[in-house]
């Protein structure tokens, strides 16, 4: 957390410096930007709105590696065109390729979003942002809303979350990645963790002081959409921290036994409890329940508070945990231990590859979605581990235990992910075999139900159609359980649904004891499927968490909670447990669908082409930890321990983004050694 504290201080200091507001002068010649990020010469914003906007813009560099300034004047003069005026301000302010400026003339009703063509957002995307995100707000005289929209749209474009955003794929300076997405673009997206930390600290302190993000005259200072963005990012960051902590705790327990790690396990359990509550609140928002704006706002703020509390709980034990593991002091011994586990994982790679090939020859592709690229992913993790082990060995030889510890943690985490990816293939194979057996058994039970329905009274004619549908589903399932493209999980799900329907239809012909016995008979099959699907989703998300967003994690948390309820009530309320187990299956399926969508948009292409393992490390979430790693072994809001590169990108304030680091075009015609230019056809009247 030491580097995290430094980052937090940097961000909060930036906020404090800009809270004083902008000059009240009314000149419309190109202005100087000054120390703040908002220049409001026409009082377009209320004081509370301006403070809120300053906070949003101050967090933007850490969120996405870019800066945005916003200028409001009555009209543009010298020059009078919006493009020329905005670019002149950018030139005078020395803005670089990753630094943007939104200029708005409220009386003249013209505007321009200035950006360098060498930056991470290309000209076409800037024009789209103007037309789709800014013009609607400006036409309503929603000056603050337009600025918030610009910040969100630019951030989405850089991280690849926006529809049609360039994400830096145009003329930006990032190096290529295997899937065609620049590495710089992905790295900038990962920097969102830093923004989450800063925002959570600010909001929680405010809440404890007795207020909830108020604005002028009690109006909300932060739009609901922005609170939703922040709470989603906080959920991802906290979930990653807990996942990393769980892994680190496993390493410590294996090395020292359960007793020395007991206190840390208790801390982790409490942090997990906080996060589970936060995910439950997010699921409540996602369930299409009608909510008032105040209720929605309160839920988002509570999510932020819970995530901050979970982080603080883990952070409080960081130094003690570091002392327990003592990687800096015992680096040579740790190096040997990790090298051995690496060899074990490497030996398992061929077996996992062969096992997946066997599964592919027997089952349909959708049944293998959770593991279809696991061997290739494991290979990238091992490549990254090899790099980090070599770096650790060099650091040990140089007597640099601190640097060695950072590389050792990175290697240890990468090897653990490789082993998990390999093990998941065997787990899925076993689960598919179990599903085949359960489906065959359920077919036999449903045959009996269909026969019972034929002999049962059916005065209203409601039973016969259900029996016919059950017979049809039995035939479909039999086909799904034969051949070389078998689909046992799909067959079992459909059979369980048919079982519920016919049990309901036959309920009148059965007494309470018979219904309970039938529920118990079916429950274990439903629980087995729920366990398998929740486990598969957990493994998939944990090993690809660098790409997976809040939606998939929220659905997985709900699946896990539903499964826990089903397990707890299985013996006393089997019918209720059956319903919860079915929900666990449903939610885990939605979690997988969302997670695969996130991973598909990550742009890793063929992991086998990633010889350095860098893209695999990014996908596995290991680079997220390293971006906040300041060279010590502290947790930095990443869980017990740290990982990755020492020092990330050389430290220093993130307040200026990457603007100075890549030269940059600082004028309309370029001017910088690597810059492009700010001229394009855009902006205009609103």
From TrEMBL:
Sorted UniProt keywords: Coiled coil, Membrane, Signal, Transmembrane, Transmembrane helix
Domain called TPM: residue spans: 38-156
Q: Which residues cross the membrane?
A: 183-204
Does the keyword Nucleus belong to this entry?
Answer: no
For whether the record's keyword set contains Hydrolase, the answer is no
- Report which residue ranges the record marks as coiled coil: 506-540
Annotated segments matching region Disordered: 657-686
Note the Pfam families from the entry.
Answer: TPM_phosphatase
Leader sequence segment: 1-27
The name under which this protein is listed is TPM domain-containing protein
- Provide the species name: Microbacterium radiodurans
């Amino acid at each position: 957390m030491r580097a995290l504290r430094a980052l937090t201080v940097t961000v909060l200091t930036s906020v404090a410096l800009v809270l004083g507001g902008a000059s009240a002068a009314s000149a419309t010649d190109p202005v100087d930007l000054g120390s703040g990020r908002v220049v409001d010469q026409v009082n377009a914003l209320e004081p509370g709105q301006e403070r809120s906007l300053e906070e949003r813009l101050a967090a933007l560099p850490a969120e996405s590696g870019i800066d945005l300034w916003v200028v409001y004047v009555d009209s543009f003069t010298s020059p009078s065109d919006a493009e020329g005026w905005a670019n002149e301000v950018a030139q005078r302010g020395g803005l670089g390729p990753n630094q943007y400026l939104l200029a708005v003339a409220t009386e003249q009703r013209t505007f321009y979003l200035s950006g360098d063509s060498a930056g991470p957002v290309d000209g076409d995307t800037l024009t789209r942002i103007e037309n789709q995100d800014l013009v609607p707000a400006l036409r309503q005289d929603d000056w603050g809303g337009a600025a918030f929209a610009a910040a969100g749209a630019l951030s989405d474009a850089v991280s690849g979350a926006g529809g049609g955003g360039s994400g830096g794929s145009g003329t930006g300076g990032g190096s290529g990645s295997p899937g065609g997405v620049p590495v710089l673009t992905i790295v900038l997206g990962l920097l969102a963790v830093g923004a989450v930390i800063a925002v959570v600290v600010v909001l929680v302190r405010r809440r404890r002081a007795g207020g909830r993000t108020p604005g002028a005259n009690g109006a909300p200072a932060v739009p609901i959409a922005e609170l939703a963005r922040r709470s989603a990012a906080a959920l991802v960051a906290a979930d990653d921290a807990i996942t990393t902590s769980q892994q680190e705790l496993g390493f410590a327990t294996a090395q020292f036994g359960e007793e020395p790690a007991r206190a840390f396990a208790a801390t982790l359990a409490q942090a997990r409890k906080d996060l589970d509550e936060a995910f439950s609140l997010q699921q409540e928002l996602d369930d299409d329940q009608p909510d008032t704006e105040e209720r929605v706002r309160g839920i988002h703020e509570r999510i932020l508070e819970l995530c901050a509390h979970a982080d603080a709980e883990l952070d409080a034990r960081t130094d003690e945990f570091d002392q327990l593991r003592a990687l800096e002091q015992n680096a040579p011994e740790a190096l040997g231990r990790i090298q051995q586990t690496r060899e074990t994982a490497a030996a398992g790679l061929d077996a996992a590859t062969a096992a997946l090939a066997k599964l592919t020859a027997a089952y349909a592709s959708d049944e293998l979605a959770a593991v279809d690229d696991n061997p290739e992913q494991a290979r990238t993790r091992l490549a990254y581990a090899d790099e980090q082990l070599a770096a650790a060995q060099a650091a040990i030889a140089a007597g640099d235990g601190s640097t060695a510890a950072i590389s050792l943690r990175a290697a240890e985490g990468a090897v653990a992910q490789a082993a998990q990816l390999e093990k998941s293939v065997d787990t899925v194979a076993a689960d598919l075999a179990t599903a085949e057996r359960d489906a065959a058994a359920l077919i036999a039970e449903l045959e009996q139900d269909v026969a019972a329905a034929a002999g049962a009274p059916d005065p209203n004619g409601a039973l016969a159609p259900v029996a016919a549908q059950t017979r049809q589903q039995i035939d479909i399932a039999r086909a799904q359980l034969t051949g070389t493209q078998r689909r046992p999980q799909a067959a079992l799900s459909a059979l369980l649904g048919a079982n519920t329907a016919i049990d309901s239809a036959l309920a009148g012909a059965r007494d309470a004891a018979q219904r309970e016995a039938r529920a118990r008979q079916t429950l274990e099959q439903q629980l087995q499927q729920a366990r398998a699907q929740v486990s598969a989703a957990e493994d998939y998300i944990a090993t690809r968490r660098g790409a997976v967003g809040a939606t998939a994690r929220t659905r997985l948390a709900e699946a896990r909670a539903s499964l826990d309820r089903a397990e707890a009530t299985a013996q006393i309320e089997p019918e209720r447990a059956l319903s919860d187990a079915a929900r666990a299956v449903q939610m885990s399926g939605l979690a997988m669908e969302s997670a695969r969508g996130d991973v598909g948009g990550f742009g890793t292409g063929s992991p086998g082409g990633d010889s350095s393992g860098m893209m695999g490390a990014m996908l596995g979430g290991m680079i997220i930890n390293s971006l906040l790693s300041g060279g010590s072994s502290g947790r930095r809001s990443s869980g017990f321990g740290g990982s990755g590169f020492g020092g990330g990108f050389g430290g220093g304030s993130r307040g200026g983004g990457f603007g100075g680091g890549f030269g940059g075009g600082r004028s309309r015609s370029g001017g910088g050694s690597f810059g492009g230019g700010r001229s394009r056809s855009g902006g205009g009247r609103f």
